[in-house]
């Protein structure tokens, strides 16, 4: 049709590759604004746009030649019809719907619509940029309707498209339309940027993630310093893994695409624990307080706070602490008068606590304006050993809390420790912490206690120490205590007697339980620990220990009380009774397990029941959390049905022993009386 498009395609092969020329009415076409020659693989296309209506028909010829043979020709006649629809021959192709210019997002599907009619039905072909569309590409599909579908669009799919409808009557070209493939373009940015600083201990490991987004997706890479590549380029995410870090360094995460480059600098700081404070000094010493100062040259933020640790110098106990101090001075109060104290100061940062400073020793002042108070604690570490069957030597250390100058000690001793202290024999000791006592009864156990005096009066008595007046027998073991306790065993530990006489060959262990009060005795090997087994759970045992040599048994320790741990009950609830209440319920009553089998505090009961024709695994379980409950009504049962019922009791450790099942049958329905 006039003012439309006509296109001729000529394909030829040969060796060498032939040249193709176009002629119109035997005249060579040299190309103009209307005649466009396009070279395609294996051929050539002549496109005429626009064609002009004329009464005469034009002859077009394709001339093919190479150096190997004769020239060959192919010709076709172009007849241009008037654009008047009434003058078109019957059956000439026409478009009901022509393609339209379209824009599509990249990776989306594009659909160029073409709906042509004619008689016979025309064949539909598509051209892109004046060349036939390559339908060998699986993303291109011509639908039955004639529309062109392009899947997963790419930038290369953009261009000018036209639909060609052809049948034996003629050829019609659609409008030339454009397909635009939109590509989102977003410069790279960090969606998960690393922190600007990381603080680690020497030798630590660290993983730092760096995530960036954009369109196109950026590549992410880590660098050390300005130029050392540490990782490969990875799309979107990259993780820097550092191991055994020994020194601080600067690192850079960079994200780059065709639209730009963004970077994030990271400083990995190796931070050690803080050093000890310097120049720790004590001043303003009072009877119950001292002022402590120290120095520490540090940048702001490198130390979070300070901690003061202190205790009486010779005390066998943990340090007291004053934490969270942000100044470099503090007044420590609530101290004991006339007591030698040891002070340390340490610094704390975000990594942890540093080592303590060198100790500073100071003695607090006396009370009452230079006078004294009574001692606040008893003499420590009292040791006794027999010199003969009638003489013994006693030695001790000063009280931990003297509260002033100790002026004297008083030694008490007796063979009957149940007597009041005033009835014990005593002996004063001046300016010494060691003394002897004589004229004792041979082969007798004596109890010894020591008391300290200041100018104001006496302090508390030391713990009793026992010794036997028999040369060669050991003195009393000390520090008897339980080191591990289970439901059926107690591990005891102790310290050997300070005076062993002749060599200790064994120990005598004595015990009784709070239930039977029956005393037991066992000779155990020499050592400093022993485990007593096969005990009853949740039972208090009284225990004491004496050392033995070839000469005999020495004085025993004071008894200690130890309770074994709880265990699961060793017996089921007692006096279980299951009684049918009516045709749908059974009442169960019970009492707790026997006291010696409870093995702890009963915290719950479990009641199980099942139709007697079913296995135990089908039983229903009712948990009763009130340990004081003594009955339970089972409801919603079947009438005139036999059930098995059994129970167990439990402690915090778990379920105990199950009872034997009881059989009980529900009643029949009651009959009405007329």
For the structure shown, list the relevant keywords.
674 residues, Immunoglobulin-like, 7 domains, 6-stranded mixed β-sheet, 1% helix, 50% strand
Distance between the termini: 111 Å
From the spread of the alpha carbons, the general shape counts as elongated
> Would you identify the CATH architecture of the largest domain?
Sandwich
The assembly state of the depicted protein chains is single chain
The rounded Rg comes to 53 Å
CATH topology of the largest domain: Immunoglobulin-like
Helical content band: under 10%
Number of structural domains: 7
- In percent, how much strand structure appears in the residues? over 45%
Helix tally equals 1
The major beta sheet can be summarized as: 6 strands, mixed
State the total count of DSSP E strands: 57
SSE-based structural type:
mainly beta
Mean pLDDT, to the nearest integer, reads: 88
Give an overview in words.
With 674 residues, the protein is mainly beta. It folds into 7 domains: 80 residues, Immunoglobulins (Immunoglobulin-like), CATH 2.60.40.10; 94 residues, Immunoglobulins (Immunoglobulin-like, Sandwich), CATH 2.60.40; 85 residues, Immunoglobulin-like (Sandwich), CATH 2.60.40.10; 86 residues, Immunoglobulin-like (Sandwich), CATH 2.60.40.10; 89 residues, Immunoglobulins (Immunoglobulin-like, Sandwich); 86 residues, Immunoglobulin-like; 92 residues, Immunoglobulins (Immunoglobulin-like), CATH 2.60.40.10. Helix content is 1%, strand content 50%. It contains 1 helix and 57 strands. The strands form 15 sheets. Strands 9, 12, 13, 16, 17 and 18 form a 6-stranded mixed sheet that branches. Strands 20, 22, 23, 24, 26 and 27 form a 6-stranded mixed sheet that branches. Strands 37, 38, 40, 41 and 42 form a 5-stranded antiparallel sheet that branches. Strand 12 and strand 13 form a beta hairpin. The protein is elongated and about 155 Å long. The chain starts with 5 loop residues before the first strand and ends in a 9-residue tail after the last strand. The mean pLDDT is 88.
